Amino acid sequence: QVQLVESGGGLVQAGGSLRLSCAASGRTFSSYVMGWFRQTPGKEREFVVAISWNGDSTYYADSVKGRFTISRDNAENTVYLQMNSLKPEDTAVYYCAADTMHGTAMYVSPAMYEYWGQGTQVTVSS
């Protein structure tokens, strides 16, 4: 079992920055891939970025590449999402997720992640 708790969401103006955190507990954090997804009402959950178990590999959605940065601190059991140059279209509920079953591959499909946090709202005003 893995428990995930996101924090750091809020309201920011376009062009601003936010840093999201996701604290994990339960299974050994350093053994699995972590991802961030986002969702707006009426739309499917959208992949944002994933990071390998040791942080050496990352994979970003084109929509956030160059603006968002994922990182993880395995000593603190935490994954971060630094979001810069935010746009109104980044407005969504952001979720962190853990893939504990599929080895080292990083997947974009939400179905490949077994554990999810409760989500944190990010609102970017124009």
Write a short abstract of this structure.
With 126 residues, the chain is an all-beta fold. Helices cover 0% and strands 50% of the residues. The chain contains no helices and eleven strands.
Report on the structure:
- There is one protein chain.
- By secondary structure, this protein is an all-beta fold.
- It has strands at 2-7, 10-13, 18-26, 33-39, 46-51, 58-60, 68-73, 78-83, 92-99, 115-116, 120-125.
- It is built from no helices and eleven strands.
- Strands 2, 4, 5, 6, 9, 10 and 11 form a seven-stranded mixed beta sheet that branches. The protein has a four-stranded antiparallel beta sheet with strand order 1-3-8-7, with no helix packed on it.
- A hairpin with a 4-residue loop joins β7 and β8 (78-83).
- It is globular and about 40 Å long.
- The N and C termini lie far apart (40 Å).
- The mean pLDDT is 96.
Biggest sheet record: 7 strands, mixed
Query: What structural class do you assign from the helix and strand content?
Result: mainly beta
Unreliable residue runs: none
Which percent range describes the beta-strand content? over 45%
Beta strand count: 11
Order of helices and strands: EEEEEEEEEEE
For the termini, the CA-CA separation is 40 Å
Q: Compute the number of helices.
A: 0
Helix percentage: under 10%
* Gyration radius from CA atoms, angstroms: 13 Å
Task: Average the pLDDT over all residues and give the rounded result.
Answer: 96
What form results from the Cα inertia axes?
globular
